[in-house]
Amino acid sequence: MTSNIDFNTYKISELKKKSKKFSILIFLLTIPLFIVAFSIFNTIKDNRKIPRIAQTKNELAVRGNIISQDGFNLVSSKKLYKAVIDTRYLDFKKEELFLSLFSIYSGLDYNELKKKLLDSKKRPGNLVLSYSIDSKAAKNLEELDLKLNSLKVFVPIKGDNSSIIRRLEISESGEKRDFRYKDTLSPILGYVQKEEDEQGKTRSLGIKGLENFYNENLNDLNNGILQGYRDISGYLYFDKNSTTTHAIDGYSLKLNIPLKLQKNNEATLDKHKIRTQSDEIMLAIVENRSGKILSMASSNRFIPDNIKPNEIPILNVNAVEYQFEPGSVIKPLSISLALDKNRVKKNESFPSSNIPNRKRQYVIGNYTIRDSHRFDDIVSLEDTIIYSSNIATIQIAQRIPAYEFYEGMKSFGFTQKTGIDLSYEKTGAMPPLIRFAAGEKENRDNIFKATVSYGQGMTATFMQLVKAFTVFSNDGFMLTPYIVDELIKANRVIKEPFKKEPVQVLSKDTTNFMRNLLIRTVEEGTGRGAKIDGLEIGGKTGTAQIAGGGTYIKKYISSFIGFVNDEKGNSYTIGVTVINPTTDSSSYYASQAAVPIFKETIQNLVKLNYLSPKKDIISKN
Q: Can you tell me whether residue 454 is helix, strand or coil?
């Protein structure tokens, strides 16, 4: 009995010992498993934080866009990227593989890349494969870098204990200006040249046109800053602790000019340049309610981002930079000065000559002034405008005192900049006041007042003439034409940044009287070729010889400046100037050279619904 109890006690003791050993074994096995689990948990929790290498990257802001009134992006800046490798890390056994893949992904020529790589072997180190990679190719090359890494195209430098490998690097190098519609709206848009900023990035600097005038606004840039971390692969990533400030591009310009109207008018000028065989044709349309320029075109255009050497003479905006003697388009202005000061009566008439038995000739000192139209012995004030009499005009001008005449012409904007938003604007020239005053005390005719009154002996720009004629559609108030309607940046809009208040030059009574004479000039006078049924059209022709070498040469400038109105209240001042049309027969006269272009411009406005013709609109007025 006793032995039986001892055996059971022994058995229980042995079981306890085995159980204890098993528990210790389980505990020993659990500790490593716990350590592994804890490590995995921490790795998951701190995902991508090893290694945490702080990195700052700049995001390039670019020059603002230029946008048409109807929403077309005329000019924009594209980011450019550069691709760099360090040739010391390139495995030259895989050189062909690298060149082939890089050529495919970048679109760059294989042979040119190979030549660059061969040349770089003389001086191993950084090699810029291209500075001008577009954003699409740059994205492709970033993907290529991962593939090249997996293919071990880049390897550590031999003998270098460091594990760092420099691979294909893609970074922003600057911007490129893109003129999407080729030569459209040149030279008004202008052009740019490249320059480097303080960070060595390629930037655009406006040289001419709107690109120059608004250069500071377009280049009002705020670069972005991206602060994050580099992962094991060397790529930048962001988390909640990262700092991101996105780039804000420069101001964009929204123009008053719709692309469709501009394209139509440029096609008109191209056609008529061939017809007139002229050096250049200039055209402008100004909205009379506001001063907005709806179209400003030249027959001499160029592609701003691909200028050819033979195009250098046509890079200027001649609408504001070319000064010329305007001819008879000045007559409505000089005669209006006399009417406004009561120096002449509306029903007056004037002799067609001051020489007995010689018609259409008027002598002042050694100068003889003639009329081309066959007037009778007497010329009415109305016919002076309608049929363009030089002789009657100079007699009217003699009645205006020198100071009044000089200041009156200046009040129309002559000898001053128009204030349009374009650079390098010229002012034109007039004789000084002292010359207008010569002989005034003796009551003698003055040759300077005479010639300036019909647009010779002075110079003006095309835009000065257009601006001056806005008085006839605004009750004597003169508008300042402007091209840009809005400056836009992020959520900030500056509306009509260069709009200026109208200035009263003439009385409403004088303006309305002259306006009716200009309408009759189109109805029955020298501007008959501009007539279109259902629209109220007025204007004045002007043909002037070009001066050269101290005398007048057999070259001419022909202009037609006027206005058009419809019953709905749409009203525009339009100017056309043709420089040096063919001198065959009489085709250089404004009635032949400029008036047909003026008429077709109005037809373009009708076609695109800027004007609505209606029968008998003129008789109603």
A: coil
Rounded distance between C-alpha atoms, residue 613 and residue 621, angstroms: 14
pLDDT per residue as tens digits for the range 6-35: 555 555 566 566 666 666 667 666 776 666
Which is nearest to 447 in space by CA: 405, 412, 410? Answer: 405
pLDDT digits (tens, 9 = 90+) for 169-228: 998 899 999 999 999 999 999 999 999 888 788 899 999 999 999 999 999 998 877 665
Q: How far apart are CA 109 and CA 156, in angstroms?
A: 28
Nearest to 394 by CA among 408, 377, 379: 379
For residue 466, what are the contacts with CB-CB under 8 A and spacing of at least 6? 284, 286, 481, 561, 573, 574, 575
pTM attached to this predicted model = 0.85
Cα gap 324→233, rounded to integer Å? 67
Cα gap 209→188, rounded to integer Å: 5
CB 214 within 8 A of CB 206: yes
Alpha helix (H) residue ranges in 67-218: 95-106, 110-120, 135-150, 209-213, 215-218
> What is the rounded distance in angstroms from the CA atom of residue 521 to the CA atom of residue 67?
38
What is the distance between the alpha carbons of residues 548 and 560, in angstroms, rounded to a whole number? 23
Q: What's the full length of the chain, in residues?
A: 621
